[in-house]
């Protein structure tokens, strides 16, 4: 199932491996509990009852080779992006530059 969040990213490239990505969530997608920071990911479907997943802010996500140039560019520019992941594998499925907030923002 695909989930989305927004924020900036840090990228680590390793020879022969998938690109490792750390997400610095936008304030609207960050929760702190017992001094631990979490990233909030929202189910991308328009289900009437929204679903969410939390990941530690220190968790590492991966980007396959097709997305590498885009994530590197976003990391260098430190532009806020929307990141879509497969919640089971923590693989980045797609991203949107720049991120756009929905019409339902407060």
Low-pLDDT residue intervals, each spanning 5 or more residues = none
What is the general shape? globular
Biggest sheet strand line-up: 1-2-6-8-7
First and last CA, distance? 27 Å
Question: How many helical stretches?
Answer: 1
Chart the SSEs and their pairings.
Elements: E1 2-12, E2 19-25, E3 30-33, E4 36-43, E5 52-56, E6 61-63, H1 68-77, E7 81-86, E8 91-96
Parallel strand pairs: 6-8
Antiparallel strand pairs: 1-2, 1-4, 1-7, 2-6, 3-4, 4-5, 7-8
Written overview of the protein:
With 106 residues, the protein is mainly beta. It has a 5-stranded mixed β-barrel. 20% of the residues are buried. The chain is built from 1 helix and 8 strands.
List keywords for this structure.
mainly beta, globular, five-stranded mixed barrel, 106 residues, single chain
Q: Could you give a short description of this structure?
A:
The protein has 106 residues and is mainly beta. Helix content is 9%, strand content 47%.
């Amino acid at each position: 199932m695909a989930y989305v969040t927004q924020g900036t990213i840090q990228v680590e490239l390793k020879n022969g491996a998938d690109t490792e990505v750390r997400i610095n969530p936008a304030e609207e997608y960050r929760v702190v509990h017992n001094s631990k920071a979490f990233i909030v990911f929202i189910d991308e479907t328009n289900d009437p009852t929204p679903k969410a997943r939390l990941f530690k802010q220190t968790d590492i996500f991966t980007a396959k080779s097709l997305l590498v140039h885009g994530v590197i560019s976003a990391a260098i520019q430190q532009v806020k992006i929307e990141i879509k992941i497969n919640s089971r594998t923590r693989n980045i499925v797609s991203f949107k530059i720049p991120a756009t907030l929905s019409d339902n923002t407060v």
